[in-house]
Amino acid sequence: MCTESEQKNAPSAAQGGMRSTQGTVGLFARGGGVMGPELLKKLNEVRRRVKYIQKDKEVKAGTRSYRVVTHDKVTAMVREHLTELGILLVPSVIDRKVTTVTSKTGSAVVMYEGTIMVRFVDVDSGQAEFMVLDAHAWDTGDKAPGKALSYAVKYAMLKMFSIETGENDEERVVEVDDVAPRISDEQFSEMWSFFERHPTVWRHPNEGMKAVAVKAGVQKVDELKADEFPKVMAYLKRKVLAAKAVKVETEGGVLTVDKETGEVLDGK
What does 192-258 look like in DSSP terms, one character per residue? Predict the structure, then answer.
C-alpha cells in the first residue's frame, strides 16, 4: 500500500485497464488509509473464506459473447462475511466525465468515466484501507454512473480478497464498432466557416447546417459521426463547385469554368 506522498505521485489508473461491454475498470493506481492489525486480520479472514465465485451472466459483445461474474453475485458471496466481521464498504465518486456518442443505429449512447474511491472500514477500530479505481460504463439512458460504480466496487472486492472467477480480462477483446464519437467542436466550426465563405450557395450557415442534417439523415448536425465529416465536406465542396460553374464553348470543346474566378474546372 502507498504512503500519502506516494498516492499523490501515483500514475493515473487510465494508463491501463480491462474493457467490457458493461464498462471498464482501470488498474489500481493508488491505495492507502489508516491500516492496522485489526483490519488486516479481518480482511484476511474474508480472503480465507471466499476463494472462488462462479460466473453467472452471459454478456454479448458484437458477434461474440462470454460469461462474467456480476456485481450482485460478488456482493452476495462477500456481504455476509463483511457484516459478521464488522467491515463497511464505502464507495464514493471523486471525479467524473460524461461523453455522448452515436451508435450505428443513430441512437445516443452515454459514456461515463468515473474515478471512484472504495474504502474498507473496520467498524470496531476505525481503521480503513482504500482503493482508487477508474471505471467506465455505457448506457442509452441514465444508468451509466450506476454501472460504473457497481463495476468499480465489484473489482475492489475481487482484488482486495484475491477471489478467483475464471475471467480472463487481460485477453478479452470486445468489438466496439457499434459506437462512434460525434463530430468535434472544431469540425463543427470548420463547417460553419465554410458556409459563411459561400453565401451565394447558402444564404446563412444555419441553412447549410439544415441541408447537411437532411442529407445525413440526422436531426441535428452535431449528431454526425466524426468519421463521416470528410465525406460531408467533400459533398459541400462539390455543391459549391456546381453552383459556381458555368459551361463555356471553345474551339477545343465545352469547358466548365468558375464564373467568379474564370478558373477552368474541367473540360470535355
Answer: HHHHHH-TTT-SSHHHHHHHHHHHHT-SSGGGSBGGGHHHHHHHHHHHHHHHHEEEEEETTEEEEEE
Residue 14 phi, psi dihedral angles, 5° rounding: -70, -10
149 pLDDT band, cuts 50/70/90, is very high
Contact call for residues 247 and 254 (beta carbons, < 8 A): yes
Report phi then psi at 162, rounded to 5.
50, 50
Write down which residue in 171, 205, 227 finishes a domain.
Answer: 171
pLDDT at 174 over 70: no
Q: Is residue 137 domain-shared with residue 216, that is, in the same domain?
A: no
pLDDT in tens, 82-114: 999 999 999 999 999 998 877 666 678 888 999
pTM for this entry: 0.52
Count the residues in the chain: 268
Is residue 231 within 8 Å of residue 221, measured between CB atoms? no
Please state the separation of Cα 173 from the chain's center in Å: 16
Ranked by mean pLDDT, which of 10-19, 246-255, 256-265 comes out on top?
Answer: 246-255
Helix (H) or strand (E) holding 146: helix 144-160
Whether residues 79 and 138 fall in one domain: yes
Report the distance separating Cα 91 and Cα 157, nearest Å: 11
In a domain, 100, yes or no: yes
> How many Å apart are CA 146 and CA 139, to the nearest integer?
10
Nearest 5 degrees, angle CA 161-CA 152-CA 58?
A: 90
Confidence of residue 152 (pLDDT cuts 50, 70, 90): very high
